[in-house]
Amino acid sequence: MNVSQLSTMRVSLTGTPVVATKHAKVAPRKSVSARASASRVNAVATTTERDVKIAEAFEMMSMRGSEEMARDELVTALRNTALSEAGIVEILATMDEDRSGFVDKDEFKHFFDNIPDSAAREWSTSIGMSEDKVKAYMDVLNAVFPGSASQTDFVAAMTNVLAKRDFNRDNSIQMISLCRDEITRDLVEELDSLWGQSFNISSLAGMIFCGCTSFRAAMSHAPDRPVGQSQKFVFTVAPHVAVDENGNIGSVKRVGISNASSACGALIAFNNEALSGQCNFFVDNTDTEMSLLRQSLASHMNLASMASVDLVDVTKAAREVIQEQLEKTLAIVIPPGSEKDYAVCTGIQIHGPENQGFFQCFDMYDVTDGKKTDLMPAYQKTLEYRQSKMGSFLWAQDEISAYGTETLLNSGKDAIGAKDLGRFQFLVEKGLPLCAKDSSGSSLMHLACAAGALSIVKYLVLKESSLKDSVDNDGATPLQIAIENGAGEGIALA
C-alpha cells in the first residue's frame, strides 16, 4: 500500500482528504467507525475535536468496548471500508506498535496522527521505478546473491521461524554484528522493533573482534528464566554491500550526498589492496580494526588467487569469516553442558536503490539442549509463504505467533478475566501454549477456575485434560483455587 492509498483510507475513515508525503504529519479527523459509512465533514477540526473523534471511532470499532482491540476486531472493522487486504495487513502491522497482538487507544491515535513509513510491497512507487525495472533489479540481485529478500521480509520470516523454536523478545537477548556504517542501522532498528534492544558486538565490515568478554557481558543481560530453563540468545551477523539500480556492485546513494558513494568501504579498500598486491598485514594501533580485517580475510582466502577476486568474492568471504569468528567465540563462552540455548542467523545485508534494504540469508540454525537444528528449510518456506500471502490477512494473523509467550499469556489472562472464550481460542490458535504458567505457577486452568470462566475451563479440559491436576507454586490445584473463589460447584461439574 502506497502513500496515496493511505490518504484514500483516511478519507474513507475521516471524511477529510489529506495530502502528504512519506513522512509528513497529517491532521486527520474521524467521526465514525471504519465499519460505518464515512460522513463528510467540511470544517477543519481542532486538535481537541480530532482527539474526541478518534476516541469515538475507537469505541465504535471495539466490539468488546474495552481499552484495546484484538487484531480480528480491527480486521472486521476495516473490511467494511474500501481497503484492500494488503492495505489492511499494513495497517495492522503499523498500528500494533508494541507487537502485543492488540491495538490500544494510544496506538490507534498515534496511527492517525502520523503517516506511517510504508513497508508496502510495491516500493517501486516510492522510488520511481517501473515494475519492469524492479523485476530486472531483483533478477540482477538474485543472480549475484541468490535467495535475497526485502529486509522486512527477512526480519519477519526469521522472527516467525525462531518464535516456533521458542526464541522471542520475552525470553531472549539478541546480539548483532553489522558494519559500523550508518546505513546498516535500519536493519538493527527493524530487528529491535521485534526483539527489543540488542547488544552491539559489531566491528568494521561486521567483523566480530569484541571477544569473549563482550559476549559474556551480553549474556549477563539475558532475561531471567524459570529454574531449570535455559537462557536464550539470538545472533544476527552479516557484512554489507550495495547494489544500485543498474546492478553496480558497491555503489550506493546516501542521504545528503549528491554523488554515488560506496559500501562496504572497508571491504572495497581490502579488495583494492589485494588487486594491487599492496596489503599490509602488520597491526596498526591507529587503525586496529582494519588491520585485523586484513589479517582475517587474508588468512581465509587464497593469497595466490587474491589478484583476481572482486567485491562480491570478498563480501562472501567476509560472511564466512564472520560466521567462523562467531562460532569460535560461542564454543568458548557456551561450552557443552551449559544451560544456554542460542540461535544464529548469518547472511549479507544489501543496500538497494533509494535506501531500500535487502538481505541474503545464508545460514540459520539453533542449538537447544546441545542439539543443533538447521532452520534454513523452515526460513525458506516461511519466506515463500509470506511473499505469496502478503496481499491477504493470513500473514498478519500468523505474525501473532512471533509475539513472546509472556505477552500472549498476559493477553490470555485478559480474555479469561473477561470470560471471552472466542478471544481465548484465538490466542491459543496463534501460539499461546496450553502449558503456560505465570510467575506464581498458576496455569491457564488455575486462572480460568479463579475467574469462574466455565466455558474456558471446559475448553481447556477438552484440549488438555491433564491441566486439571496441575499445581501452582503453593501446591494448589485448579479446583482448590475455584473453591477458594466461590466457583467450586460449577467448576467441579465441568
From TrEMBL:
<dbReference type="InterPro" id="IPR018247">
    <property type="entry name" value="EF_Hand_1_Ca_BS"/>
</dbReference>
<dbReference type="InterPro" id="IPR036770">
    <property type="entry name" value="Ankyrin_rpt-contain_sf"/>
</dbReference>
<dbReference type="InterPro" id="IPR002110">
    <property type="entry name" value="Ankyrin_rpt"/>
</dbReference>
<feature type="domain" description="EF-hand">
    <location>
        <begin position="83"/>
        <end position="118"/>
    </location>
</feature>
<dbReference type="InterPro" id="IPR002048">
    <property type="entry name" value="EF_hand_dom"/>
</dbReference>
<dbReference type="Pfam" id="PF12796">
    <property type="entry name" value="Ank_2"/>
</dbReference>
<dbReference type="GO" id="GO:0005509">
    <property type="term" value="F:calcium ion binding"/>
</dbReference>
<keyword id="KW-0106">Calcium</keyword>
<dbReference type="InterPro" id="IPR011992">
    <property type="entry name" value="EF-hand-dom_pair"/>
</dbReference>
<protein>
    <recommendedName>
        <fullName>EF-hand domain-containing protein</fullName>
    </recommendedName>
</protein>
<dbReference type="InterPro" id="IPR040703">
    <property type="entry name" value="LCIB/C_CA"/>
</dbReference>
<dbReference type="Pfam" id="PF18599">
    <property type="entry name" value="LCIB_C_CA"/>
</dbReference>
